[in-house]
Amino acid sequence: MPMTPTQAATGTSRPAQTEDAIELLRNDHRAVQKLFSAFEKAKDDDFDAKSTLVRRACEELTVHAMIEEELLYPAAQVALDEDDRPDVEEAYVEHYLVKVLIDKFTTLRAGEPGFDATFKVMSEMVQHHIEEEESDLFPKLRKSGADLNALGKELMQRKEELEAKIPKDAGDNTMRLR
Ligand SMILES: [Fe+2]
């Protein structure tokens, strides 16, 4: 039986573990963009599909923000010249805002006013994050000579650890993991 768009977007298949740090983070970005576009395509009244997609996006984004804060940004501070270093303060503020929206889904249910709008605003903020990293930080890191294979392994290991701990309900999982 062919997979529905929701099943395809929420699938758990993993790429081979040969990704370096940038490939891993880009794949995270692609995964979350797939969830955003599946949400846009979901029927207005398909609340089950929408809930599933939002829950998966919240999980993905929670883990993604944590591995970036714990591992990527510190590595970038070491590997890049001062002018090229990511503005970590700005990244933290952006991550914080996404977490506030993730937290709204602890109580907000599909079909309730504000559910779709909250997810839309969240997807726009994340899209901005993706564009910034992929056009600026990642190319600079690629050029820096940093050991992206070693960093990729660390990111994958931490990602698996966090995914194993994550509660299987929507909401601000970051707070519960800390
Ligand atoms: Fe990212």
Automatic annotation (TrEMBL):
InterPro entries: Hemerythrin-like
Residues of the Hemerythrin-like domain: 21-141
Alphabetical list of Gene3D superfamilies matching this protein: nmb1532 protein domain like
Pfam families given in the database record: Hemerythrin
Protein name: Cation-binding protein
Organism listed in the record: Caballeronia pedi
